Structure formats: C-alpha cells, structure tokens
Amino acid sequence: MRRRSLLAGAVAATPVLATGCSGGGDSPDGSGGRTVLRYGMWDPLQVPGMRKIAKAFEAEHPEISVKIEVTPFDAYWTTLKTAMRGGSAPDVFWMNAVNIQLYASNGVLRPLDEFIERDGFDMGVHPGELVGMYSYGGERYAMPKDFDTIGLWYNKELFDRAGVPYPDDTWTWDTLRDAAAELTDPSRGVHGITGEMWRQYTYYNTIPQAGGYVIRDGRSGFDDPRTIEGLRLWTDMIDRGWSPSQSAMTDTRGRQLYLSERTAMNYDLSAMASQMYASPAIRDHGGVAVLPRGRERATTIHGLANAISGKSPRAGAAWEFVKFMGSRRAAEIQAREGVTISSYAGTQDIWVKSMPEFELRHFIDMLDYAVPYPASKYTAAWENLQTQLLGRPWTGKGGIEEAARTLARQMNLALEQEK
Amino acid sequence: MAVFPSTAAAQAAGRTGRRTRKATGRGPGRTQRSAYLFIAPIALGFLVFYLWPLLQTFYFSFTSFGVFGGNTWVGGENYQRVVQDVTVGRALLNTLVYMAMGLVTLPVAIVLADLMNRPGLRGVSVYRALYFLPFITLPTAVGLVWNWLYNGDFGMVNEALSVIGVDGRYWVSDPSTAVYAIGTVMVWSQVGYYLIIFIAGIKAIPRDYYEAAQLDGAGPVRRFFRITLPLLSPSIFFASVICVINSLQQFDLIYVMMSPVNPALGSTQSIVTLFYKWAFEENSQGGAAALAFLLMLLIAGLTYLQFRFQKRWVHYA
After folding, report:
1. What is the mean pLDDT of chain B?
2. Which of A25, B55, B144, B148 has the most crowded Cβ, counting Cβ within 10 A?
3. In this structure, what are the phi and psi dihedrals at residue B122, rounded to the nearest 5 degrees?
4. In this complex, do B261 and A102 lie within 8 Å of one another by their Cβ atoms?
5. How many CB atoms lie within 10 A of CB A168?
6. What residue intervals traverse the membrane (chain B) (predicted)?
C-alpha cells in the first residue's frame, strides 16, 4: 500500500514540476503588468551594448521590459533547439547564417513580412546580402543586426624590413604570392602569410575571387575547377613554406601569430579590430587593406540577426523590440560599443572612427562586392566534411584537387539528405 | 566506490536475503518491505534517469528525429548508416586505441602502488596526493594545459626534447601522433585513481605471507609476482572493468584538445565524440541514438567477457 501511495505521489508531483518549468516565462510576472520579453544571445562582450539598447527601448515602450539571457556559443544552439521543443525558448534571439534555413524551414520562427508591411519598415537600410541571407521561401525571418567582412591585416614593420610596399587595392593574387615569398624569413621564424583552413577567413573568400562557388542550387561547387583554384592558392603557399601548415596553425592560430608578429599578413574578421587595437604593437604598426583580387573581387559577408520565436505568445511586443533593434538609434548605440559593425546603413562611420590608426573603412568599402556566407538547411553537416577532408592537403599531404572532388561527392550526398 | 565487487559482501547479502525469506514465510515480510523502501530512491532514480531514457533512445534509433519535434519511423535506416559510414569504423578503431592505452595504465599503477607500499618509504601521502591530483582536476583544464605543453612551436614537450637533440612535432595536430598524444594524457590523468585502488588492495594483503616467503628465500621480484599480483587480482579485475568502460566513453579530453580545424580531428574521434557531432552539430539524433546503442552493446559485451574469464585469473582469497 505504501509503495502505491509513494508512486501516486511521484506521479502527482510531475505535472507540478512541468508547469514550474514552462510557467516561468509565460506570465507577465510581478513587474507591474508589463510584458517581459526574453532575449537570447551568446556573446558576453556584447552584453553591455545590448543592455544599453534594451534600456533605450524600455524608455520608448514603458509597457515592455527586456530580459537578456546569455548562453555561451558552444551550448547556444543545443539549448535553443531543446528549448524550442519544450516551448521555453526566448521570445527574441540571435540567429546566424548557418542555422537560419534549418529554423525557418521547420516553421519555428515567426515570419516578419506581415509586420514589415504593416509598419512600412524599410529593410533597404540593411545590406541586401544580409536580408537575403535571412529570407527563406520568399519570407523574411530575421532582422539584420551587424555584419562582418574579411580584410587583409598586415604588419607594417615586417613589410618595411623586407622592403615590400604595403598592400592596397591594386593588389592581385600574384602580388599577394610575391609578397608572401619575400616576407617569409625562416631565420626569424616569420611567415609571409597565415592561410588557415578556416572557411570564413580564407577559402570562402578566394573561391568566389577565382570565379568558383561553394554551393549553388543545392549542389556542391567543390569539384568546380575554379573553386579548386581558390583552395589551391592557400595549399600552394603552405607547400612553398610561405604559410605555416595547418598543424602549426592549429597549435597556434593565425590570429595569435599575427598578434605576436610572427606573420606579416593574415586574413581576418572586421570584428577582430578591437582585439587588434588592444595590442600596442599592432595598434602602432598594424594595418588593414581590401582583399587582393583574383579573377574577381570578393569578400565574405556574414552578420547576425534577431529572430522571433514562432511559439512566442508575445509576438507583437517582440516585433516592436526587433524593429527597434533594426533602427538607426540601436545601431548607433551598438556601433559606439566598438564590438561589431552595425548593419544599418550610415552608422558604420562611428565604428570606423573609433580606431583611427587602422583604416577600417576598407571593411565597409568591400560591401560593394561582398558574397554572402554560403549555407543550406543542414549547413553544419557539410561544413564538418570540409575540415575532415581538407586537413591533409592543408598539411602538405596529398593533392588539393582529389580532396576537393571527394569533398564535393560527400557534400552532395549530405545535400541529398536535406530533401 | 560503491561498485566494488566485494564478493564476500554480496554473498553475505544473499545469505541474509534467503534467511529473511525463510523467517517470514510467504509474501513480503516486514524486513523485506523496509528493504524495498531503502532501495526505492536508487531504484526510482534508475528507472527515471537510466531505464526510461534507455528505452527512449532505443525507440529514437529507429526514427528520423525532428529537430524541433515530430519524429518519423524509418526502421533500420539509422543502423544501416552506422554500418556503412566509414567515419564510424574509424571512430571505433580510435576508441579501441584509447582502450588499449587505458589498459596500459593498470600495470603502471600496480608497480607504482607496490613501490609506495615499500616499508619505510617517507612521504607516501604526498606522493599519493600528487598522483591523485590529475584525476580530480577538471578534464577541461587538463586538456587546455596539455595542449600548451604539446604546442609544436612553443610547447614545453618539444623544448625538453630539443635539449636531447630530438626534433619534436605538432603532437596533437599531426594525424599520426594525435591519438597517442591524447591517450597519454588520459593515462596520466587516470593513473592516480587506479593507484589508490591498488594501494588499498596491497594493504589488505597480510604481511605474514611476505615474511614467510622471505624466510623461504624469495626475492622482491618473486614476492611481487607470486604474492602481490595473485592476491591483488580482485582489485585488478575491478580496475580493468572500470578502465575498459571509461576508455570506451572517452569524450571530454578529445573535445577540449581537438579544435574544429585540427587536421587530425578524424584520426582522434571516438565513438562518443562522433555521437556528439551527429546529435548536436549535424541534427541527426536518430543516427546518434543508433550509435549510442552500438556503443552500449560493445561495452556490455566486453564487460560480460571480462566477467566470464575472470575465473581464469582472479583469486578471491
């Protein structure tokens, strides 16, 4: 008898727990009848900026308050997916290019078109590549917030020592290769360039520069001869010893080598500017240039965006917040923090001027020919294949062409699965 | 250390069980009822946190797991993928390497334990603490620090090797060495745990045996092989069972030490890191569930074999 009552007790306790879990976010809770919006993000560096924006928003909308919830990036997507299943996801949250199609295609995001049209919000204030990146099936699903492009970071002191003129917009792949050769100085342990096997920083830029592509109409572009050219630029420089091999750059990342003046050139994110600025040596003699051109000019653009959960019962308030986040006012607050470039047109100057020693405007100039970060529904599946298969050529073992063709084959199999 | 297979205790428990049943006759007696009550917390925990998820995982392994809910039955498709995917074979092989390296820990720990039980050795507790320290250190911290030590250009391992004129390599990012480099850290961080077990095991061996053997003229080596090893065999058995299970489940060190751009990533992946990748990076939870089941069967099979063959070499005093 006792056993049964114990079991009954356990069963009775379960729903209490369940409501305890999901009930937390739903109620307008004790803040004087205000609607509480939960805002999910991952970057602790951006918390102060986001908090300022939330404050400004609350001043305009006294009936809504915003609660920021930070989940570290490594756990962010797992947590968000689980929360989506359980119905406890934040109302508004950060979205990236790798995940947008997965979320949009599963119908867990609130389409924004009805709100955009109702309020006549002009999406043209954000770069078209980003708005396109966050559209799926003709609907817009997220509001761009910031963006990143890739630039050529270089070390003026190492250039001076080797007697090589600084990079500028006349540079081509040939100039880049010649410079890398001349700047390499084994006796000082200095490499001309760091060509890491890190898609966004290196080959996602040189592939379109060569006239190739990563993915088009649901098919892999890695077996395209021009795509392979874009990859070979890097493996070639590794084979010639102008760049460390991927093994060396795994142990010490290209960015670290650049910061410690062990490499003269490094392709890196605009978002790293503040970190570069914090290093006295780089602040003194570091510089930025547009990426050297191949057949074409290109740089990879990626940016984060704010999306609304499809399950949020507060979609109206959530839209107000998302709209505010996409406005000039929020963009300026964000730009002043200096962490990221705001995507709102005309607010980038604040960021550019915040670090006058670097010519950061090059990052903005490249917007004209920026290529969106390639993605599909299950992007991560074929991104993992890249690191698996390109590692050998990137360490000087085995040709790039064969590896790229294998990659294309396997990537196409993965893309088949999406259908 | 609740898992310690103290056979004597188990037999004792069995005996009392029988006795109570006899004493109370048919049906559960009062003693038995309170016994159930005592095991209820752990039994409930087992049901809720182990058995139920296990059954669910088994079910999920036959479904295509919707990322945001909505699972569809796909039959044996996931198992087919597990069998056909080359990365699974590779991960299995790597996992077996980790297991083999894990088992190497045991003889090392036995020898160390024997040395530390030498009469008259001073500062035993200090040594014991030093060896045990890595085991209680967070694997994340251990992995990060070892990554610095292993760094091909600036690491202390290569620095030390250069003193004796050896040219080091990129230990954790060279596909030919990475799996052993990680295995070594695994051995290093576990040796203290087995050491503690073996020290306790050796302490339990009566001193008289050694004195008698010494009188009969047995040297230290002979005493070690003829007395210490056989009488320590129950502890060795326990340690080897735990060691096999632990090394088959290697995850954290690999996860921390291998960055996603590491060219040696494929040659260090274990079954569990592959599981993580499928389940949480590639949104293929169904396949991951099948993989997890395969791993469970492997562990169960190896553990069964170990129990099966223990009579051949384990001596319960």
Report:
1. 87
2. A25
3. -95, 150
4. no
5. 12
6. 35-55, 96-117, 129-149, 178-202, 223-248, 288-307
Contact B172, B257 (CB under 8 A): yes
Same domain, A295 and A308: no
Assigned fold of B85-313: MetI-like fold (1.10.3720)
> Do A408 and A222 meet the contact criterion of CB atoms below 8 Å apart?
yes
Shortest Cα distance, chain B CAs vs residue A86, angstroms: 9
Cβ of residue A84 closer than 8 Å to a chain B Cβ: yes
Would you state the torsion angle of the CA atoms of residues A94, A100, A105, A109, taken in this order, to the nearest 10 degrees? 20
Confidence bin at A17 (pLDDT 50/70/90): very low
Give yes or no for residue A20 having a pLDDT over 80.
no
User: Which of A18-32, A123-137, A166-180 shows the lowest mean pLDDT across its residues?
Assistant: A18-32
- Position A3 in a domain: no
Residues on chain A touching B43 (C-beta within 8 angstroms): none
Q: Are A321 and A66 in contact (CB under 8 A)?
A: yes
Q: Structural domain tally of chain A?
A: 2
Predicted pLDDT at B26: 58
* Residue A309 sits in the same domain as residue A277: no
Q: Which domain holds residue A182?
A: 150-301+378-417
**Minimal Cα–Cα distance from B296 to chain A, Å?**
23
Contacts of A153 (CB under 8 A, 6+ apart): A258, A265, A266, A267, A268, A272, A276, A286, A287, A288
Tell me if B263 and A395 make a contact (CB, 8 A cut-off). Answer: yes
pTM: 0.83
Distance from CA of B30 to the nearest CA of A (A): 12
Q: Are residues A397 and A251 in the same domain?
A: yes
CATH number, position A350: 3.40.190.10
pLDDT band per the 50, 70, 90 thresholds, residue A309 = very high
Do A106 and A220 lie in one domain? The reply is no
Report the C-alpha gap between B184 and B177 in whole angstroms: 11
Q: Do A283 and A407 fall into the same domain?
A: yes
Q: Where are the beta strands (DSSP E) in A241-400?
A: 263-269, 286-289, 299-301, 305-308, 341-342, 370-372
Asked whether residue A346 falls in the same domain as residue A327, the answer is yes
pLDDT at B11 over 50: no
Q: Which of B44, B69, B172 sits opposite A85 (nearest CB)?
A: B69
Determine which of B151, B177, B261 to mutate to test the interface with A (most A C-beta atoms within 10 Å).
Answer: B261
* Secondary structure letter of residue A170 according to DSSP: T
Nearest-angstrom CA–CA distance, B248 and B300:
11
Q: Is the pLDDT of residue A25 over 80?
A: no
- On whether any CB of chain A is under 8 Å from the CB of B150, the answer is yes
- For residue A200, being part of any structural domain is answered with yes
> Is A163 in the same domain as A131?
no
Which residue in this structure is represented by tokens 């340690």?
B239
- Of B152, B282, B284, Cβ closest to residue A248: B152
Residues A127 and A140 in one domain: yes
